[in-house]
Design brief:
alpha+beta, five-stranded antiparallel β-sheet, 19 strands, about 45% helix, about 20% strand, elongated
Length: about 625
């Protein structure tokens, strides 16, 4: 609230300026009452009061309180709004009747342009309290009446009105000004307090709405563990009655909460089974002024949590059958079988060389199945070290430093619950784990590493391999019973070289994807022949990378044959015996291809890796894997 005048001199100056303005406005100083054109009709007055209802009610209460003190002492109290209209008067009969004769009453406006210098107009202009004696007022009829008037400000420090204490001049003194100043201050304080309460109520309503619409069950308890507040989700989870207040939560959870409340520590990631539904339970103390006053409990449906985070954690399949490119009879046959498999819950095995699109098939099958709105989770057995695969599959639990908090890490099987688990290159799954995954398929339950608690696991298994699993069984690398289980339904996805009519379609797709180009318009006959006749040993994956490289090298210019970097590779591959092109004999083919390439380039690993379209470290790993040694040739960089 603005301060009062610094000195009586400042107050006199403000009055003097107002008197000068009153003269400029050509107001008749001999008027005996406020003009009728400054009066509101009864309906207009009620409308104005209604628009100021909050301020009006608070001010009336304070006016009544003050009048109880000054009653029968010859005073009248007047409330005006920010335009100068009087909204309310209250006072002793004699002074009130005298003021009414002068239209100093409800419905009349007492602005400077209407009445010249007066208590209400001066305070509205200066925004400071003032004691205006009768001789200082502009209108001569005020010669016997003086007024003490103070501004009223709302919670935003905006001037919203005035309060005046009027009486015959002999009765007025400086204490009269103190009374109205204190009353104006009381009104402003109440408005501020009510605004704060209203804001708190609004925040509470927002918070309550947020809690009620939350998919999490939320409960607050006091130090006696009694429920203070529960949202609708929590009421449903625990089947609580409407009069749930004062119910002890510990009796429902069958959990001792006192150590948590006493030690002021969080209790997180506790798994709890309520009516055969798994939830994660968090308990966090509510601390006020460094003291625990209660706790907030949060229950999250485990499966709902996984589903809500499908996009964030990449647990969603984006490919459909329409996304898989190919019109050849052999690929169309594979797609038809896959569509039939999508209606089954039986485990499915996808056979095929690397790069043929086994994961695309898996995603398309998932998106056509009844599980399409559930998670699609991928486990790549060839990319994860074998010693980590068990935890990656089944998850694990670890003890934290605090005895009430455990670290729970979800495995792929839990993430995929009610959805699909795609196990890529299952032949690389360690032999010991194969029995565990078979048990999960048969029982529908798993155990996290470090826990003996069984966890339901409703999963559709889709497995893939580029190896001959029957041969792996013969070599004692793969379990016969697991192979039988996962191959009840089996699909072989053909390599690109067996569906050459699809190569232009694939190339056209990637040209559009990487450069908005087309097979027909941007490739000459030489390039088309080169790309169509190349054997594509890494299949669709290799086509994608070759086209991406060519478009990048072209950088908006016409494509050239050497951008595709296939001449040497084509020559190398054309000299190789095709042995057996069955996907199940891929390792033999790969080994022979590498040997022939090493011979062609006389051990130059850089040239050899470039011709094969792989990196030198990858080439070295494959040489070590296949124990390749060629007499008379020394490998060099």
């Amino acid at each position: 609230m603005p301060l009062s005048y610094q000195s009586s001199k400042d107050m006199e100056k403000a009055i003097s300026l107002s008197l000068e303005r009153s003269t400029v406005y050509k107001i008749n100083p001999n008027i005996t009452q406020a003009p009728e054109n400054a009066k509101l009709l009864q309906g207009e007055l009620q409308e104005l009061i209604q628009s100021h209802s909050h301020f009006y009610q608070v001010a009336i209460e304070e006016i009544h309180s003050l009048y109880d003190i000054i009653k029968n002492t010859g005073y009248c109290l007047t409330l005006a709004e920010s335009s100068g209209y009087i909204l309310y008067t209250m006072g002793d009969t004699e002074i009130t009747e005298e003021l009414n004769k002068r239209n100093y009453t409800t419905g009349y406006r007492w602005s400077e342009m209407d009445m010249g210098t007066c208590d209400i107009s001066l305070v509205l202009i200066e925004k400071k309290p003032i004691l205006l004696t009768s001789e200082k007022m502009y209108a001569h009829f005020s010669s016997d009446i003086s007024s003490a008037c103070a501004p009223i400000f709302d919670e935003t420090n905006t001037l919203i009105g005035t309060i005046s204490l009027s009486g015959y001049t002999p009765n007025m003194h400086i204490h009269s000004l103190g009374l109205v100043c204190q009353t104006a201050k009381n009104i402003s304080s109440k408005l501020t307090k009510q605004s704060e309460i209203k804001e708190l109520q609004t925040r509470y309503n927002y918070l309550n709405a947020l809690l009620e619409t939350s998919s999490k069950g939320i409960i607050t308890i006091n130090l006696q563990e009694k429920i203070q507040k529960a949202n609708q989700k929590a009421l449903t989870i625990f089947n609580l009655p409407p009069n749930y207040q004062e119910t002890k939560l510990s009796s429902i959870l069958n959990l001792d909460l006192s150590p948590i409340l006493k030690q002021e520590t969080n209790f997180l990631n506790h798994e709890i089974n309520i009516n055969n539904i798994l939830y994660f339970l968090d308990i966090v103390p509510i601390i006020e002024e460094e003291k625990t006053i209660g706790a907030i409990i949060r229950l999250v449906d485990k499966q709902e949590f996984v589903l809500q985070n499908m996009e964030v954690t990449n647990l969603k399949a984006h490919v459909t059958f329409d996304s898989i490119i190919g019109n050849s009879p052999i690929i169309q046959e594979a797609l038809e079988i896959a569509k039939v498999a999508a209606s089954s819950n039986a485990p499915l095995l996808l056979n095929g060389e690397k790069g043929v699109g086994k994961k695309l098939f898996a995603q398309a099958i998932h998106n056509m199945s009844k599980r399409k709105d559930k998670p699609f989770v991928t486990l790549s057995c060839s990319e994860i070290p074998s010693e980590l695969l068990e935890k990656e599959l089944f998850g694990y639990e670890e003890e934290s430093n605090h005895r009430f908090q455990r670290g729970i890490h979800f495995g792929k099987l839990e993430q995929a619950n009610q959805g699909t688990l795609y196990i890529d290159e299952i032949a690389n799954l360690p032999y010991g784990l194969q029995s565990e995954i078979l048990k999960a398929m048969q029982t529908g339950h798993i155990h996290r590493v470090g826990s003996s608690v069984p966890i339901p696991s409703d999963v559709q298994f889709i497995c893939s391999t580029s190896k001959d699993l029957k041969q792996e069984v013969s070599n004692n690398n793969f379990r016969q019973d697991l192979l039988y289980k996962i191959s009840m339904l089996s699909i072989t996805i053909p390599p690109v070289r067996e569906r050459k009519e699809d190569i232009p379609l694939l190339i056209d797709y990637f040209l559009k994807k990487f450069g908005n180009l087309s097979y027909e318009k941007h490739l000459n006959l030489k390039m088309k022949t080169l790309l169509s006749e190349y054997p594509w040993y890494e299949n669709v994956y290799q086509i994608e990378k070759v086209i991406e490289r060519a478009v990048h090298l072209a950088d908006g210019k016409p494509l050239k044959a050497d951008f595709f970097d296939l001449a040497d590779k084509s020559e190398t591959c054309s000299t190789l015996p095709l042995l057996n092109t069955n996907p199940l004999n891929l390792e033999s083919l790969e080994k022979e291809t590498i040997k022939q390439s090493i011979i062609k380039f006389n051990g130059n690993m850089s040239h050899c890796a470039k011709a094969l379209g792989i990196s030198r470290p990858t080439l070295y790993r494959k040489i070590e894997k296949y124990h390749i040694k060629i007499e008379g040739i020394t490998l060099n960089s």
